């Protein structure tokens, strides 16, 4: 019996699989912009402009934006769209509290589960960072510090804990960048890593937990100040933009003042 060919109409209804890799790349790029506050706090996300820039349709763009909503970078308002979440002193403070809780639990588990080889591997990584620290930018130092804490958490052998901490790390990234610009803070914080590794290798739980808490408290105590600095920065930028716009609107095409 001859095989019946499918009609063009039938073929047209075959579902098309979305390119997951392209959505992931789009999400990562938008997340990076959100972390750097390229999207201004409280500002509406221009979906049409992003669609044109990346050459994507609305569904994959919205999928990426919804992921950023779930991770706490954006807000979604019905019938209005997506907005960069405003800077909040309370929110940043709470995120630092969550970070302390997660890292303390990770360290508790690492004392039990981490192998000596894993600890030595982390020590070798950090020694390498410190050997080149003098020539590293603030951004590179921050990434190295985040990687240290990421690897420390991984030694808990609890992947779910690591994933939650990763979300917190992303959301406090800009605030921590400001914090690392304080040179006196850098020396104290980075030296604390070696002390923490010594205590972990000796399996001294309580001293290790205390050292970790004090280490993160250096950032926690500055959280409110850092957030105020960020708010002031964006406020001044907004004032400068508004003044420039007002001057442009009050001038004619040749820079002369408009008649009133």
Automatic annotation (TrEMBL):
Pfam families the UniProt entry points to: FCD, GntR
Query: In the record, what terms sit under GO molecular function?
Result: DNA binding; DNA-binding transcription factor activity
Q: Is Transcription there in the keyword field?
A: yes
Tell me which domain of life the UniProt entry assigns to the organism this sequence originates from: Bacteria
- Renumbered to this chain, the signal peptide range is none
| Keywords, alphabetical | DNA-binding, Transcription, Transcription regulation
Record-linked InterPro entries: GntR_C, TF_FadR/GntR_C, Tscrpt_reg_HTH_GntR, WH-like_DNA-bd_sf, WH_DNA-bd_sf
Per UniProt, residues of the HTH gntR-type domain are: 20-87
Protein name per the record: Transcriptional regulator, GntR family
Q: What is the lineage of its organism?
A: Bacteria, Pseudomonadati, Pseudomonadota, Betaproteobacteria, Burkholderiales
